[in-house]
Amino acid sequence: MSRAAQTDLAVLAALSVSPMTGYALREAILTHLGAFWTESFGQIYPTLTSLTRDGYVSPQPGERAGSSVYSLTATGQERLIELMAAPATEVPPRNGVLLRLFFGNVLGATACRRLVLQARDRAMAQLAELARVRAETENEPPSVHTPYWMITISAGEHSARATVSWADDALKSLDHVPE
User: Fold this and answer.
1) 175 vs 179: CA distance, rounded Å
2) pTM across the whole model
3) In sequence order, what E strands does 35-121 have?
4) From the CB of residue 84, how many other CB atoms can be counted at a distance below 10 Å?
5) pLDDT tens digits for range 60-78
6) What span, in angstroms and rounded, lies between the C-alpha atoms of 59 and 24?
7) What is the pLDDT of residues 80-126, one digit of tens each?
8) Main-chain phi, psi angles of 159, to 5 degrees
9) Cα–Cα distance between 121 and 125 in angstroms, integer?
């Protein structure tokens, strides 16, 4: 699936939850999907334009002058199902920390230790954010989306805990590496 089709999928899926403006769409993606998916305004607005042109979304005037609230059309719902049924595209990993650690002899153990500690701190921050999102989701009235959202939150938590565990092991290993 192309990058553009993946953006279409993210936008259509978010609009399947509720109609919203482009700005609200970006905020919803950042808030609810940010642990595993991002879309910039530079991706969202052109996508909304093309989805409108193709009849997948319908804009209505928003509260502010010049703003539009986008709703999923019946054709858009069909397109969403088509995109959701397509195989997920796995993007080859690009992890700057692991790239640097693989060639860590160039940096030395002290610099590598800092990289690992920073990765651990980011994972801990992600765990805190996911705990906030989990609590917020648990306090909302249950919906058809809730079990799927909780599964996704759980995946983020598992991933972040794995990073913390890896970092702890890596730090122990670096304790034995001469500078």
Assistant:
1) 10
2) 0.74
3) 57-61, 68-72
4) 12
5) 988 888 789 999 999 999 9
6) 14
7) 999 999 988 777 777 899 999 999 999 999 999 999 999 999 999 99
8) -65, -45
9) 6
